[in-house]
Amino acid sequence: MMKNSLILLLFLLFTQLLNAQSPLLKNWPDGQHPKDVGKALAYHFVDGRHELYAGRWIHYAEVCTWNGALEFARKTNDEQLVKLLIAKFEPFFSLEKALLPPKNHVDYNMFGSLALKLYSVTKDKRYLDMGLSYADTQWELPAQHKAEEKAWADKGYSWQTRLWIDDMYMITVVQTEAFKVTGDQKYIDRAAKEMVLYLDELQKPNGLFYHAPDVPFYWARGDGWMAVGMADLLTHLPQTHPDRPRILKGYRTMMKNLKAHQASSGMWNQLIDDPNCWAETSGSAMFTYGFIVGVQQGWLDAQEYGGAARKAWSALVPFIDERNNVTEVCIGTGKKNDKQYYYDRPRNAGDLHGQAPYLWCAVALL
């Protein structure tokens, strides 16, 4: 039995190695190399101003972009960029402390993921304490709470649970980062338990997700949060974790149907299943990231999905303008049961909702 298990493990490792070295995700033409694209976007972020919620707190889209820039700096051993990103954060301990998000919402608590990533780089305990406070309060029911929040907490879920698909990036990113820096199993267990709940409650038979249960539209960036959240969680979830098979099944089902809806251009549309809708960059980049990670980890067929990922990256890069702003990014979008509403959403150049997943793809392709 032990010998068979060892053979299986070696086979899986060999398969992952072959997938990770797939030529479909290497040898990029001029202008498309992930290192060049990532460097341009990362340094552009360093020079940018903070993006705030109503002028008050750091926005989650900035945190997502910061995380991407930091991972890029680490992957490329760019010490100058690391120092610049650390220096950009330092005022949060003093002059800009008021910009720290409160710890009472999934979009705010995910800020802790950035502090935890910085701790992994610097080993400065200030980052660890800050990051864990955001991760832990996501599961600590506040004194002033609603009955629904207590009901979720009593079942072992985050009191911030709301069954919006965005949450499966916002919750999992901070809990997974806490697991990575502490090794404490409770954090990855939290993320996995929450993910299974959202899959069971929200995933449709075709593998995709409505923007909300009462809004029957497959909005690209909304589904993108699920694609990235599952890919990142599976990367760090132990092979023997009891929730892994369910999450892997949900991930593969989603990837299969995303591939079926990829346009001939390589992009995905603002409404995934509507061929007449416009091509949207942030969701497309998130789906591309899901493909790349799946190929590299051996969860997806390297030839089939590696080709789709390459086609998507080649389509995404031309949407970056001369100022290193990603164009055709749908602005922040609340739910609405109106198809035309999604067609008419404004598109911003340089919106951090788009800059972030481009950086994630660049890092993954390196």
UniProtKB/TrEMBL annotation:
Q: Give the matching Pfam families.
A: Glyco_hydro_88
Keyword entries, A-Z:
Hydrolase, Signal
Q: Does the keyword Cell membrane apply?
A: no
Q: Which InterPro entries match?
A: 6-hairpin_glycosidase_sf, 6hp_glycosidase-like_sf, Glyco_hydro_88, PolySaccharide_Degr_Enz
UniProt signal peptide: 1-20
Q: Does the keyword tRNA processing apply?
A: no
The record ties this protein, via PANTHER family, to: UNSATURATED RHAMNOGALACTURONAN HYDROLASE (EUROFUNG)
> Any idea what this protein is called?
Glycosyl hydrolase
